Request: fold
Amino acid sequence: MRTNDLITEKLTKAFAPGSLRVVDESHQHEGHAGHRPGGETHFRVYIVSDAFKGKSRIERHRMVNAALASELAGSVHALAIHASAPGEG
Reply:
């Protein structure tokens, strides 16, 4: 399974998001630390979920990081997170 699909699957199961977009930005990091041939190392996640209501930015990031712990310990070198609750700008 592609890493992008695995991230999407895990975040969907963990947060039942109203909106989720996972972007592979690995091509932008060629020659940088953590980049590997074939990519799938650097990702940006945009997620909107009720699970983030009343949570701080740090709490939201910790929640996402926990859901993707095995990927972050393995194949994923960098993850940019944009997590919000419904109705937030």
